[in-house]
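As promised in the previous annual report, we have extended the structural survey to additional targets. Below is the entry for ABC transporter substrate-binding protein.
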Amino acid sequence: MSHDGVGLRAVMRSVAFLTAGALAVPALAACSADEEVAKPLAAQDIAPATRARIADGGTLRWAVDALPQTLNTFQADADAGTSRIAGAVLPSLYRLDSNGTPQLNPDYLESAKIVETEPKQVVLYKLNQQAVWSDGREIGAADFAAQWRALSGKDSAYWTARNAGYDRIEKIERGKSNLEVRVTFSRPYADWKSLFSPLYPKDVMGTADAFNDGARRKLQATAGPFTLQTIDHKTGEVLLARNPRWWGRPAKLSEIALIAVPRDQRADALAADKVDLAEIDPEEAGRITLAARDKGTAPPQGPGSVLTPATALRSSVATYARQQTSLRDFVVRKSLEPAYTQLALNGSEGPLADERVRRAIARAINRDELVKAVLGPLGLPAVPVGSHLALSGQPDYADNSGALGGQDTKEAQALLADAGWVPGGPVNEQRQQQQQKKEKDKAAGPEGKKADSDADPDDGTFIVGEDDKNGEADRDRKDPKDHADKHGKNGKEHADDEAGKHLDGRQYAPRDNRQGGAPGAYAPKGTAAPAGAAAGALAKDGKALTLRFVLPSGPGSDSLRTVADEISRMLERIGIRTETSRVPDDSYFKDHIASGQYDLALYSWPASAFPATDARPIYAKPVPAADGSLAVEQNYTRVGTDQVDQLFDQAIATLDEDESRSLVRKADARIWAAAGSIPLYQRPQLMATRLNLANVGAFGFQTPLYEDMGFLKKGAQGGTTTKKDR
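The corresponding structure token record, generated without further manual editing, is:
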């Protein structure tokens, strides 16, 4: 999971209130499994070239957010850097194609298939006879067995972040030869292709010490087109070198250097010839596009040929002009990332514990407008995401947003009226309490809101929908329980933070047996929207309907803030006020999203080729734990239903791919109906790429082929030249 700008694994409905469990079957009929699969909204953009056109040698310098804290992808603090290194140096039995569909990797497998289903599911892997670890040992059943034992969940000495799928394996055996591996499952497992990718050597998985600590900084053996050469945390660089024992197509590059460069310094690093490839934000993309457009003309003076005050503060006009000249050696390759941004609604307490309020918010939002605001200026397809569990182009994708319904202000207002929220109301006492709270926060200094009158107006809190800014609603927030003592000494503290388990001691808000919503007066079902409802804020039981909207404040979060502002204006039209809080990036997830300290938030989830496995913990129904906390797994909206859990369980246990796909789509329709999260847009993927680089850029769904990346031979660029051939 990630959020934009912060550095981490898809029927029309009436206004009448229905719980997710009461939905009629016809309303949940997702697209049939034999329907034509939609294409990806945007193709990958990697400057494809044949290997004959690519020079042998050279070092690709690739900007990353930070060096990984671990090389073990199965630990909780593994990140994108961990996965990138694993993709270049470790076996993956399956890799994703341009549609995000897993395809057998012939570098490691000759075949893999289910050979028995009764009495147990058995998968037989036939390994590539040339596949060896960098120490010369053959890849074999011992490596499979060690990884299974480490990730099965049966040995608590292994500090694993996940064990899905491995917990269903009963045994692993050598087949007729060393090149065959038989995996027997205790229970049917539809997503068996997700296992053993990456595959670690038995030296890493064989003992808890090696798994927990040894693989954080070093890999004893690798088996990819590259090997791990060095990790230097002082210089912020990881060096990967061509693997001399690699049996596949030889890597074109001699080395790949992963260099830590903060997001707000990427343009400077590109212009200073420190990196060749970097993911960038729209502002930097605009600079590169402008530089290319101005090639051969007078040096530009800033974005759009106008030097902005922000640019003037960072550098002189002359420096900026020199950078623009250097940026002419780059091009912006763009596609859509295999991840989507959603609006999350925390359903654990308060107004959002009532499904009608959540559904009203969803019906008030015009997703088309939000998508156009983010993707339109970038020239990318502006199409809202229609599924929580897959993206357009993937086999599991179907647009199930109809289970909730499209934008309709009148129905949104009627839902709120049905939930007892009416215009106006006695909120004077609440206003006074909030004013007292604000004054107390100011007096608290660094622990409260900033008292400095010169503070950035974008920091802190403001309310949309209220003219009197001192009349903020009292949120009556409680600090989450401190669980540091529970997990800090056993080495799992970070794992629990990231997994979102037992985080804050919250319980479900009390719900009555009429509607399952927040306590208070309820209008009869089907109540018409009150006249003039859009003109004033709504209130109930003396409290205004004000929701806390939490956002990150760091570099790269501009698009999130733009979307949040638009959502706040849309909600204001139906009488819902938003109290926006911008918090530091490093605390956004842990201290707010995972701990449930928000009402509304924007963050992203990656798409998965195996949604029945990977998405289940994101939408699993939270359950009370023995210590009184709420076990939410990764369901940070805290909205879930038994029916969704059952559909996931059924999808993961059927070996019929079409049936499994149908069950996943039905689960998605119910997730839409529960309105705990609203998918908005597929995230843009903007890569600044040196002009003479080939087979690298915005990959979209497809797994990068590291061995095919490289610099074009001189003369292979159709006359294009750059200041440096590598």
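The chain has 20 helices and 24 strands. The longest helix spans residues 657-674. These points will be discussed at the next consortium meeting with the crystallography subgroup.
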